[in-house]
Design goal:
Layout: H1 8-11, E1 20-23, H2 33-42, E2 47-50, H3 61-66, E3 70-75, H4 82-89, E4 94-97, H5 100-111, E5 116-119, H6 126-129, E6 133-136, E7 142-145, E8 151-154, E9 157-163, E10 167-178, E11 183-184, H7 193-199, E12 200-211, E13 230-233, H8 236-240
Parallel strand pairs: 1-2, 1-10, 2-3, 3-4, 10-12, 12-13
Antiparallel strand pairs: 5-9, 6-7, 8-9, 10-11
Helix pairs in contact: 5-7
Amino acid sequence: MNKVVPTAAEAVVDVPEGATLAVGGFGLSGVPNVLIQALYERGVGGLGVVSNNCGAMDSGLAVLLAAGRIARVTGSYIGANKEFARQYLAGELEVELIPQGTLAERLRAGGAGIPAFYTPAGVGTQVADGGLPWRYDGDGGVALASPPKEVRAFDGTEYVLERGIRTDFALVRAAKGDRHGNLVFAKSSRNFNPLAAMAGRVTIAEVEELVEPGAIDPDAVHLPGIFVQRVVALTPEQAADKRIERRTVTAPAARGTVNG
């Protein structure tokens, strides 16, 4: 039951070329940066990534993206990642963009053993009808477009059929975890991390604080260890390395003024 692996490098040692990965995080929050860096240092490429976005600034999945290691992205947000947009429009990267809630449910469904489900999100759009550009040809044309999906009416309302997602591996980051793989996520890092962890056939978690089994109240567990195969304890320096994507501060009041 001891799932602790000594290093991140050992935890990702069997991730092969062309593997599919579900990766937790949103922006800079809850991103498994240490595991991603270890994967980058392994040098594997042709990866298929399922994640809300593909890294921000020069961290997270942006490290693999900039190195040309990612072949396909399934996500819901390109954001301000200019390299992501450049590779997509240049035809270097295949991208399946889907509604954010649908992405979350596809990951959860895959982890729960549900092959497909119906949702109203996307009905009447190219999400359901097909034709979304998955890959461009580099000259502004579409080289590969999304196929149409099954649409069915229930009680007079139309729903589109979406498939659950399963990946070869999942990489996640937790605030706390025990040796059995039970995980706790802090605040907004409890975004896509539990869902990505459920979707992976082999799930690897980097944890900021490693505790012994029983130290986490069962009612406080966000993800049971049944979904986690490997745990990597971060060093204090790695755990504290958290960047801010956009810093917003309030301008100081002018000297002598009174706030009312």
